[in-house]
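Hi R.,

Here's the chain you asked about this morning:
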Amino acid sequence: MLLKFLIVFLSISLFYCIPTPFKSCKSHDFAFWFYWYLIWDMNQPPKNLTQEDISYESDKEIKYSNKLYLHGNTIAFSEYNYELKAMSKRHDTELNGIRFLDISNLENIKNNGFIKIPGSKEIAMKETTLFTDSYDDLASIDVSNIKSPKLNDLYLSVFYLSNNTYIPINTIGRKTCKTIYIDPFDFEGRIHEDSADTATAVVLPFTSKGSSISRFTIVDNRLFAVTYKDLIVFDISDVNNIKENNRLNITHDLNIETIYPVTNYLMLGAVNGMYIYNISDKDFPVYMSHIDHIVSCDPVVAEGNTAYVTLSSFGRNCRTGEDRLEIVDISDIENPKVIAQYDLDTPGSLAIDNGVLFVIIDTDGERKLEVLNVSDIENIQSYKTITEDTFIDIILDNGKAYALAQKGLYIYDYSDPSNIHQIGKYKFE
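And the predicted structure, written out as tokens:
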């Protein structure tokens, strides 16, 4: 702190030509060195995550929620806290973490607690393991006992853009041994608050998926992650020994925002378009094609031979963006074509299931949930507009919509799109 004060004082002295021991006093010298110091300070990577940095809290207040993840009968979402630090851009990091809700009984959704993980924003889960970013590192955390999370492995410095520039994977807005690892999921995939010391449970297949604004996705034993310019493939077959198997440079610009899997392909949403990669060989993604559009923020989802992209002018990277839904024919994966457009108010996160499209839109600061019938792209119709909260993120699964909002988690039944209704709610205190 004293060092920062001295540097600021000397810089101001140079700028205003206050007498100092230095021989020269030029404003451009000040500008250069002060700018260098700010960049140096902002780009210093935080310390590596340790077991002591990870902690469980049962009653932590939910202040700012972010990205949503569905894992069996568990809903997870990231949380962050805006506390600005002097002379640093690392303002929302130290109090970050992941919240877990038990949704096995929609009439009584339970808060299983919060795990503090400094620098965390992204979520992906494989069985009892949570994968998340911790600043520029990738962390593997055992959550078999939610109240006692254990750091399995930390893959260091994976989200650096270069050898000397620290940029978090997402700036919107970081072992103990057991003889037997007890499976913490019951037959419906629910994380227990405590795990027994003996016995195991058989787990039936269940849904594990992220949302359209995620930068992580898991396919088989591979975790795919995107930075602003790279697609990275991690081998997570051994959660205690993460390996980086491949890294592909997608663009020289800082454009990549989101990742979404569909069959054997990855759809990458970028500021300037959508990129498609074939992952038939998981370790060696193959570029197939891309489409360009005006500079906008644009998550993407896909179903069958159709991809849906929202273009939004909201956000510092979206600049001259336009606000609309673009529908893309991907039946010829090497030649995707925009086949329809639909005007929407500042759209964001979206999700598709059987021709029913949920989109979060922002009308004059009110973030609504718009439900569209896109089964006939020539005649897109609105099923319903939901306005009971300020919505943030959305995931669809088997007739149920999981909507994260500012004041709570809402679950809707859309199995009959003409009668969409709420079937569960968890209000944040």
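Residues 155 and 331 are 37 Å apart (CA to CA).

Let me know if you need anything else.
M.
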